[in-house]
């Protein structure tokens, strides 16, 4: 009966996973179709963007699943469940590990091959309307550079050993043989881990740039709302009248046949461009004012404020926990050479305090972890949407509803893939022992004490526990996520400093967002370089 119940739970889990996968695909399709330009849309770029965005969301959802599975194999009294014998637990661990292998390999494929190829192919298609063969060759030529970088990272990760015994009398052939033996014993895990960690560092920079700002901008924008469409339309009408009067004054100078000066001609050209932009704004504001979507958003305005308050609370919880975790590492870790890794928890942060409490009521702790992961992803999307895509101080693309170019969507999805890789380490920084062991409990063999690993850090120091109770370490199963996090100490050190930068950028973004006024109801929808044809692309959203 217990085996049947376990099989029923497993089947239910797979059904829920299938429904979640379908929901992710539907969301990705709606999101990409909402922002892509109708005039410049391409099938291959659309499919690539939807696929990459879906991979990013599925990968981010794997962390809560990993934590849940290692926790589900044990009872509350610290013993393993009947069905969770050594073979079954090993199969579950391998399944999760293969899931990480697959998703991380797909991310490498997307970042280093597929997305660059589609991007350069579309760039060549815009510049040259020649045959498809030449466009493919040119795109492959540029993509070859990305493939070379990926191959170098895989080789470094595969054959640079982490711990090779130093034998003075060993020959060069023995050292090379030892390298291949180590690569075979790790089954390529080290090579993949090094490549993923390298991308995670880039994802850390993207998270510092976009996610930190999005965590402050998204909640405050929901709370403050946007300006009224009717009020903006009234102001826009006054601007149109003012520009038209200025144009009439300049044109009146040439009524008697005298030519305009070069300065007046430049001013006249600027005013005509300004007038075209204002008239486009007038059409957009009129459409928004009459649309049912605007009336619906006004009706749910109180709900938006509630969501904004909830999001800012989550952001502050996230930031305070990250600050205390980093401060703990700064005060109690072994230093830079160890990657600032600490054993146990010396400074308790709010998230570490909240998770053990939520563990008592299933599945509140998993809901919290999933909420934080999803919040991290959606604030990243909000940050990219608000800031656009930048290369240092150069703005490459804007993310605008119904007007986003295919190249910009590809960049957005690539950035999200990189940020997702950094998400696991961010969550680990907030609750390291929970990410490693979930809600598992163990039994101390000579007594009746039952303790969680999170409580263990507050009672004993972990190093002392390893020396005194070595047999208890095998009673809990480590999540597969942890295997990819601390293979290389120098990456851990980089993540540590990145966390400080993330906190600083979040605080700066919070101050800037508080000082800024309400956003325009057509923020980013109308620019001076837009054509009149682009107005038709937005009409579908407002009617």
TrEMBL record:
GO terms for biological process: protein localization to lysosome. Keywords: Cobalamin, Cobalt, Coiled coil, Lysosome, Membrane, Transmembrane, Transmembrane helix, Transport. It comes from the Eukaryota. One of its GO terms (cellular component) is lysosomal membrane. Pfam families: LMBR1. It is a multi-pass membrane protein. One of its GO terms (molecular function) is cobalamin binding. Residues 261-288 form a coiled coil. It is found in: Lysosome membrane. The chain crosses the membrane at residues 12-32, 44-65, 98-122, 142-162, 189-213, 305-324, 366-396, 408-431, 443-468, 488-512. InterPro entries: LMBD1_LysCbl_Transport, LMBR1-like_membr_prot. Belongs to the LIMR family. LMBRD1 subfamily. This is Lysosomal cobalamin transport escort protein LMBD1. It comes from Callaeas wilsoni. The gene is Lmbrd1.
């Amino acid at each position: 009966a217990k085996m049947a119940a376990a099989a029923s739970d497993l089947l239910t889990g797979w059904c829920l996973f299938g429904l979640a996968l379908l929901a992710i695909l539907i969301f990705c399709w709606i999101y990409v179709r909402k922002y892509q330009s109708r005039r410049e849309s391409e099938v291959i770029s659309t499919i690539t963007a939807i696929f990459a965005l879906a991979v990013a969301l599925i990968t981010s959802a794997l962390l809560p699943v990993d934590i849940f599975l290692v926790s589900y194999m044990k009872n509350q009294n610290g013993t393993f469940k009947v069905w969770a014998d050594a073979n079954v637990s090993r199969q579950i661990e391998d399944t999760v590990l293969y899931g990480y292998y697959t998703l991380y390999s797909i991310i490498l494929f997307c970042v280093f091959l597929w997305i660059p190829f589609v991007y350069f192919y579309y760039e060549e298609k815009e510049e040259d309307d020649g045959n498809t063969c030449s466009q493919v060759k040119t795109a492959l030529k540029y993509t070859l550079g990305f493939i070379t970088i990926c191959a170098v990272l895989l080789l470094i990760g595969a054959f640079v050993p982490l711990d090779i015994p130093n034998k003075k009398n060993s020959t060069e052939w023995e050292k090379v043989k030892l390298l291949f033996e180590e690569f075979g014993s790790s089954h390529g895990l080290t090579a993949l881990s090094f490549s993923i960690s390298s991308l995670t560092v880039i994802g850390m920079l993207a998270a510092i740039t976009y996610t930190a700002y999005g965590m402050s901008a998204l909640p405050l924008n929901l709370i403050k709302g946007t300006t009224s469409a009717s009020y903006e339309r009234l102001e826009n009408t006054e601007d149109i009248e003012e520009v038209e009067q200025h144009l009439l004054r300049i044109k009146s100078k040439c009524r008697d046949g005298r030519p305009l000066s070069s300065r007046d001609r430049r001013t006249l050209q600027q005013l005509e461009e300004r007038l075209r932009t204002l008239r486009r704004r007038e059409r957009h504001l009129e459409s928004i004012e009459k649309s049912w979507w605007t009336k619906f958003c006004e009706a749910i305005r109180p709900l938006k404020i509630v969501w904004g308050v909830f999001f800012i609370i989550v952001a502050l919880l996230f930031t305070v926990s990250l600050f205390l975790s980093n401060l703990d590492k700064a005060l109690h870790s072994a230093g830079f050479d160890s990657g600032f890794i600490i054993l146990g928890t010396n400074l308790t942060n709010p998230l570490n305090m909240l998770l053990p409490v939520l563990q008592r009521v299933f599945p509140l702790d998993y809901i919290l972890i999933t909420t934080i992961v999803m919040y991290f992803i959606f604030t990243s999307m909000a940050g990219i949407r608000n800031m656009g895509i930048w290369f240092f101080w150069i703005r490459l693309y804007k993310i605008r509803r119904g007007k986003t170019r295919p190249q910009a969507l590809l960049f957005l999805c690539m950035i999200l893939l990189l940020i997702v890789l950094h998400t696991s380490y961010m969550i680990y920084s907030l609750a390291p022992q929970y990410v490693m062991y979930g809600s598992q409990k163990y039994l101390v063999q000579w007594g009746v004490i039952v303790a969680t690993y999170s409580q263990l850090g507050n009672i004993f120091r972990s190093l002392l526990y390893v020396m005194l109770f070595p047999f208890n370490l095998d009673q809990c199963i480590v999540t597969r996520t942890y295997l990819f996090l601390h293979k290389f100490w120098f990456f851990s050190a980089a993540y540590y400093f990145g966390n400080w930068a993330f906190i600083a950028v979040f605080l700066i973004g919070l101050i800037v967002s508080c000082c800024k006024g309400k956003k325009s109801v057509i923020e980013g929808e109308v620019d001076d370089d837009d054509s009149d044809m682009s107005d038709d692309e937005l009409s579908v959203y407002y009617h």
